[in-house]
From TrEMBL:
Names of the cofactor(s): Zn(2+)
Protein known as: Zn-dependent protease
Subcellular location: Membrane
GO molecular function list: metal ion binding; metallopeptidase activity
Entry's Gene Ontology BP terms: proteolysis
Keywords noted in UniProt: Hydrolase, Membrane, Metal-binding, Metalloprotease, Protease, Transmembrane, Transmembrane helix, Zinc
Family in the record: Belongs to the peptidase M50B family.
Presence of keyword Zinc: yes
């Protein structure tokens, strides 16, 4: 039997005082770890940028083209960042991947497929703005390498619109195809992804081909190609997404052709030939 009763000790002794805990003294729950992405290590970001720029310099033979491409890449990724932050996915961060390109990463998934489409197209659309100052430098210096730099920027944005995982085009066009039938999305994107990998191998772009091949295999292994908790596209949004995709692609293609016209002496045919040679197609 316990020596204490409901009002104190059974032998009449006074009970010990009860500590009066204030709110400040009360035990606190363990603080939740901060899971927000802090972004790429600054030192590694600089090293990655230098490695990427050096590779472009090596293949293009021009420091101006390499510098323009890096500038265009950052503007492209910042377009994604602006859209992510505006749509509640931020704060978004930019990562530079050595020898490959860049990546914009948000803190959370898009709330809907429509938001995902807008984020995907924001990079190429905003990235085209980088063409303007580079063309302006050509007007000042008349150095044709600035035009090639502007062309490279336009092509960065246009190639990213290819509907092949994990490029922006697959995230913009994929939900539209899935609105018709989920299997249509997978078949179309896998087929186009395979063609892009083949193009990379055939034109000697082996690093890009390996990267896209690994990404394509990753998508094949994935059970779901996008978060399952987001709202699906409506038919109206699917139509708008397709229209925005086509407009953005046409703007990128027009910018690429436009900056080549002075180099082709105003001939659209010669400008097309230059663009085709860039992607490894001879005619």
């Amino acid at each position: 039997m316990s020596e204490t009763g409901p009002w104190g000790y059974r032998d009449g002794r006074a009970p010990p005082p009860v500590a009066n805990l204030s709110a400040d003294d009360a035990p606190r729950p363990a603080r939740q770890a901060d899971t927000d992405d802090k972004g790429q290590n600054p030192t590694w970001a600089v090293v990655s940028t230098l490695l990427l720029g050096g590779m472009i310099w090596l293949f293009s033979g021009s420091a101006i083209v390499a510098g323009s491409a890096i500038f265009g890449l950052f503007v492209h990724e910042y377009g994604h960042v602006l859209a992510m932050n505006r749509l509640g996915m931020g704060p978004a961060r930019i990562y530079i991947i050595p020898f490959l390109g860049g990546l914009a990463k948000g803190q959370r998934n898009p709330r809907s497929e429509w938001d995902g489409v807008l984020v995907a197209l924001a990079g190429p659309a905003f990235g085209l703005l980088a063409v303007l100052p580079v063309v302006g430098l050509w007007f000042v210096t008349r150095d044709p390498e600035w035009l090639m730099g502007a062309f490279f920027i336009a092509m960065i944005n246009l190639v990213n619109l290819a509907p092949a995982p994990p490029l922006d085009g697959s995230k913009a066009l994929g939900p539209v195809l899935a609105r018709v039938d989920p299997m249509l999305e997978k078949v179309a994107l896998i087929a186009i992804g395979g063609l892009v990998v083949w193009w990379g191998v055939a034109t000697g772009r082996y690093i890009l081909a390996v990267f896209l091949g690994i990404a394509l295999l990753g998508h094949l292994r994935a059970g779901a190609w996008r978060p399952s908790d987001g709202a699906r596209l409506s038919w109206g949004q699917a139509g708008q997404s397709l229209a925005l995709f086509i407009i953005t692609a046409m703007a990128c293609a027009a910018a690429a052709m436009g900056v080549l016209l002075p180099l082709a002496e105003g001939s659209p045919t010669q400008a097309v030939d230059v663009a085709l040679r860039y992607i490894g197609v001879e005619r």
